[in-house]
Amino acid sequence: MDRKDDMDLESLKNMLSDVPDTDEFDLDSIIAEVSGQAPAKAAEPMPKAAAEPEKPVEPQPAPAAETKAEEPKTAPRNKKDKTAKKAAETAAEHESVEEAREARIAAREQKMEERERRTAQKIAERQARREAKLAEKEAAEKAAEQQEIVEEAAAEEASRKASISRKQARAARIAADQAEEEEDIKLVDPEVAMHAARRRSGILSFRSLLVLILAAAAAYLSFAPSFEALPLPVVLDILQNPTIGIGALAALQILALLIGIDVFGNGFSSLLHGRPARGTLVSFAALASLLHCASLLVFPDQGGVAVPYTAVSILLLYAEMREARGRSLAQARSYRAVCEAEQPLAVYSHYDSEIDACNAVKCPLYDASSFLTEIERPDTVDRFSLIYTPIALALAIILSLVASFNCGEPVRFFWAFSAILSVSAPIGLLCAFGASYKNTASRLLRSGAAIAGARQANLLRGTEKVMLLENDLFPTGSIELEAIDNLGRITDEQILGCAAALTESAGLELGRVLTDTTKERFGITFTARDVRLVEGGVTGAVGTSRIVLGTAALMVKMGVPIESGHKGQINMYLVVDNALAGVLTMRYQTTKNTYKAMRLMRRMHMNAVLAVRDFNISPAMVEEEFDLRRGFADQPDPAGVDRLLNPNYAKGDAPAAILTREGAGPFMQVLRGADKLAGAVRSALTLGTFAGLLGMLIVFYLLYQNAADALPVMNILLYQLIWYIPVFIITQQTR
Fold it and tell me: How confident is the prediction for the chain on average, in pLDDT?
């Protein structure tokens, strides 16, 4: 039976209802058989009735199933068998359909279970990946934090190393510059150099006075025509008789140049040698003034000012001569300090890589000619002039050309050039160093010291700490023995002798004091062996006994019971063979000069490094004795003290100053003088540079606007004098 011909039981029942009611077919049995129930007992066959003829029926289309269902009419027996067979096949097919359906359902359920299992597995895998990513993210964040910490530490270390390298590079650059400059320095005997400098300063003083008189005369000739109250012969009146008046000014200018011919010539000589100085601007200003005078005589109707700036150029020459005079006098005083010193000490600005700081230290003068070289070395103002002078000179030429050609009269170039150069070198810039150096050298000479110049003063000004020795804090005579407390084990003479032997063998200043006291008391002197400095004391052997001399802190560390000392006094405890034998009471007195020096160091915001071996001297003791703030003094360990006291500690550095006297007083006077000198020179150069550049721009603007009425000689002189007032006040602070 084909699958397409399948039909349900209801259709089969309707089909079988058309079959004649005979005993050959049992409808209920067939339905039961088809529905899968147990078939009923088949009825016995009934006698078949005679067949009646059937009426002809018109052919009508009928479904194939009906046609097939009518076949048992002709053969009822075969039809029943076929029907049963078909029913069985239908039931089998139904069972197979059900089995297939159940199989499909089972397969579907299995697929669902497999899908659920895969979904759960995917969820678990996704959760595992998420947790893994979170763990990786946390690990990455931790690693990033650690990396950031490491990078910050590395950056700090790199910054510290970079800072150190910058300081080292600066020191190397200074050393290279010094080596290059030393090739052009010729040294002479300090005695000869002192007399030569003093003689030159005297000559410059006299000649500068003559130049000042000429400057005043030139100023009078320049001002008198504009003021009726000032008497002036008509023949010298520039406005009424310009040829003679301008000629008189030019004559004064030439006479002034002849008086200061060395200063005038050095301006051009330094430019030709590639080292332009401030005097170069003065020389060019004087030359421009002469050219302006000549242009006024040749082209009288050129316009602009009628009076040349002769008085200004002569005044600038006077300022340059006074600057040279002050520098020569200061060098003469420095040479005098060198000549008076038998064994001078040198002051160095030494960079200590161990503590990453610049220390001001006193060390022996390794080479006597090194300080003389520093005196003759080009100074701060000389190095500044190498930059400022070419810029000012080039700017003056360019601005003069622009201003003159803007007016359509190139002949005005000489007027513009002279006017701009008259303000390009302010008096404050010309006198930025000589007067301050002279005042500082005079003050230091009275204190027993000398400084090489502003360049070395700037090095000392950059120091952060000052290394102080025992003699700096407590010079000879400020330490004395107060009393001896004998505990009865040995005599007073033995206590004093053992203490003197230990401290003398250790090389302490305290040992000299105790030895002198022992000799004064006619005591017994001993010899110490195996002397060793320890923290807070000194140990050694005297005879067969083991001796320890130290502070209360050392006794506490050793477990020796002691009593507290008195205020203003320092106790030293002597232990003989592990037993306390006596107590020596010492008094450290602060001298007036040392006290002032320490207070001066405090005002200068400098800290002290105590390079002392005396175990009684500590930062706390120094701060208390000199009434200093807490943290003012610092003291390295014994190994660090030995490194600081090494004679070769600052070897290789250029000496900045020398000392002819011992003590902290001259040392601090050098540092104070260096600070004032460096500050005064820096301030004067700053003000002078600003005044020069500003004046050049103002004059150029007035020239560009052809405002000749705003540029008379009087205005230029007032501009120069006004800007010199603050420099003069700053210079007086160095006295």
Answer: 82
